[in-house]
Design goal:
mainly beta; globular
């Protein structure tokens, strides 16, 4: 079992920045893919970014590439999502997830999920 806890969400103006954190516990993550997803009201959950915990390879959705950066600190068992140049359409509940595979970019590939943290971007 892997437990995931997100933090760092909040209210920010358009053009601003936020950094989300995802603290993981319960398992060694070296063979896991970790990812960020988001779900806006009335919409399906969508992929944002993913990272292979062991080697640090990263993957991004087209709409966030160049604005968001995913990273991990193995010493703290924590994954981050640095979000810059935020837009109102980035408003959503952001969730982190863990998958027992090398890389994963779809919801069905992920086995463990955090509870989510709200990000609201005002115009």
């Amino acid at each position: 079992q892997v437990q995931l806890v997100e933090s760092g969400g909040g209210l920010v103006q358009a053009g601003g920045s936020l950094r989300l954190s995802c603290l993981a516990s319960g398992r060694t993550l070296s063979n896991y893919a970790m990812g960020w997803f988001r779900q806006a009201p009335g919409k399906e959950r969508e992929f944002v970014a993913a990272i292979n915990w062991g080697v640090g390879m990263t993957y991004y959705a087209v709409g966030v590439k160049g604005r968001f950066t995913i990273s991990r600190d193995s010493t703290k068992n924590t994954m981050y999502l640095q979000m810059t140049s935020l837009k109102p359409e980035d408003t959503a509940v952001y969730s982190c997830a863990a998958a027992t595979t090398w890389v994963a970019t779809t919801t069905r590939e992920y086995d463990y999920w955090g509870q989510g943290t709200q990000v609201t971007v005002s115009s």
